[in-house]
Give the backbone structure.
Amino acid sequence: MKIGMVLYPTFGGSGVLGTELGKALAKQGHEIHFITYSQPVRLGSFKENIFYHEVVVTDYPLFDFQPYETELTSKMVDVVKYEKLDILHVHYAIPHASAAFMAKQILKAQGIHIPVVTTLHGTDITLVGRDPSFEPVITFCINESDAITAVSQSLRAATYEHFKIFREITVIPNFVVTEVSDASFSEQMRIKYACDGEKIVCHISNFRKVKRIEDVIKVFAQIAAALPAKLILVGDGPDRYHAERLSRELGVNEKVIFLGKLRDTSHVLSFSDLFLLPSETESFGLAALEAMSMGVPVISTNTGGIPEVNEHGFSGFLSQVADIDDMVKNALYILDNDRLNTFKSQAKIKAQEFAIEAILPKYVEIYTKLAHN
Ligand code: GMT
């Protein structure tokens, strides 16, 4: 099949998922056309069956706001028409579902039928989409999609709760492509970042408010008071400054390493002992799954779709949002030398439920049904 993949190219989970999905489909022989405004961070170098179509937004002095959605729609129309696509799969409803609806109508007027699959990822529903300034468009476009998927049961339920959706939403959980770690590299890096016996705690996110970065620092400060440990933070975003300030205030700044944004997080995860995800809300928690797949147990909140991923007492532990003491207690329990390796193995076992081999056929089934209608 020829599939158009529309996504945000940045470090967010929806872009990562859409890119990895496209790469996996291309490996199976499908032709994948990425349509977005810059090269997706996880795309990497040349790959067979993969094409990238950049949406260029022209900067006219007349506009205070550049019309990205219009440029995106035109690009979708062009790519569907001239590359003869069978399916358009859009990740994240805003503005991708509405641009896809518009593209579909334009193509229909030219006698071309293009089925649209919309995957809901989280904040498009739980935060941004609920904003009254977006809601009517979101509701309409979700209902107009030919197939709708959500990344967790929790997100599916939230979508029905907050929007008047009269269509079936299929849950297709996020997946992980497990990277093979190089043991000698991991050992070298462990020696570089942590002295003998120090545990390595890790957090990866876009440092937005919803991630509660300050809770990461608070939990780590208590862990570091109890045992030798370092904290590695990967990513960047609006709350990074607060994390830097708090780590100085709590006197742990010497033990906190800010690496910034990384295209590939598997290397850092390969020498980490524990992953912290204290989010306010999380439709799935792809970063936690990626950690688990590298054998890193997870201390997280029990919000949204996280309990569908992180199994309490097996791959890690779940706590109420903002319950720092409980997260610290659980973290110290896992980091105990007698238990750590068991939790590491269990995290890997749990992640296997979300192996790409198990999830990919679910998308292919949807595409196949729509393409043959
Ligand atoms: O977490 C973010 O802020 C990024 C956001 C996105 O859309 O890129 O992530 C959402 O989608 C991910 C992939 O499906 C999920 O794993 C994240 O849980 C979800 N984030 C939230 O719900 C806050």
Summary: Residues 2-175+355-371 form a domain with the Rossmann fold fold (CATH 3.40.50.2000). The mean pLDDT is 94. The longest strand covers residues 31-36. The CA atoms of residues 1 and 329 lie 50 Å apart.
